[in-house]
């Protein structure tokens, strides 16, 4: 089922991380503001994004047009392909942050036509500007009475956020951070307000995992942490990949993926097992709960190669992460232990 812009807004709001009270910011950003001002600005930018997503949750149907339907098993969410309106809003915000200059004691940003994407039509640009104004921005120098903005005649633009001007520092810092500090395995920090990209020291994986599962029940959180520590103690390595708003904790054994925790818009929160050796422990599988037996029976690997059509098998064998896994936690551990043993 295709996820709407409202679904996306709810999801993005849910994956915005909680922010530590105190952390050291990469010194390169001190040319913009001091450490405390940046930390306060990030908190304000986080609140602005929550307001933006809340507005989309209410008004999303007015802005939702999708030229393409996501594949049933797709984890990545590409805004430009599936949610062009939010992509356009992000583009304008990013350009304001990248090209705008803080003035008036950081109470406003001075911008010119560089804040607009010339590839985007005037009418689409105006639609985004009006939405951002509804989110609390004030943009002087743009005639809102026009049906579409004249991109050839813009200049002397000022951007304000009266409810908390500190947000403009956070906006600028996060826009620069996405461009300068984003990596192939850590993308889309801007629209997640992932302040951790700014930290002068690498964030511990466990804190990212705790933040990702904060909406699970306490018992489920404890189980996930238990599995995490159990398999690190057994010699597995864990890496975090964030791509297209897909958060993936990948656990590898002998340089090959054994299992992972996945959080994505299309598929929710899941554990996936790259079960390559189920034939070696067939008798054990008969003792597993039906939900695990049925998943194993689907088979792991490319469905097109196995029987001619995609069944999502390349993702691994999937179990949803919710309270239902509490009853089968020992079976999951036994399954993972056997996969390790036969590798």
Question: Can you walk through the features of this model?
Answer:
This protein is α+β, with helices and mostly antiparallel strands. The protein is built from 13 helices and nine strands. A hairpin with a 2-residue loop joins strand 5 (237-243) and strand 6. Helix 1 runs antiparallel to helix 2 (35-63), helix 4 packs across helix 5 and helix 4 packs across helix 6 (167-181). It is elongated. The two termini are 36 Å apart.
Computed structural class: alpha+beta
Helix content: 40-55%
Strand content: 5-15%
Mass-distribution shape: elongated
Q: How many H/I helices?
A: 13
Structural Rg? 23 Å
- Number of distinct beta strands: 9
Q: Give average pLDDT, whole number.
A: 91
Low-pLDDT runs? none
Biggest sheet record: 5 strands, antiparallel
What is the H/E order?
HHHHEEHEEHHHHEEEEHHHEH
- The main sheet orders its strands as 5-6-7-8-9
Please identify the oligomeric state. single chain
**What is the rounded distance between the termini?**
36 Å
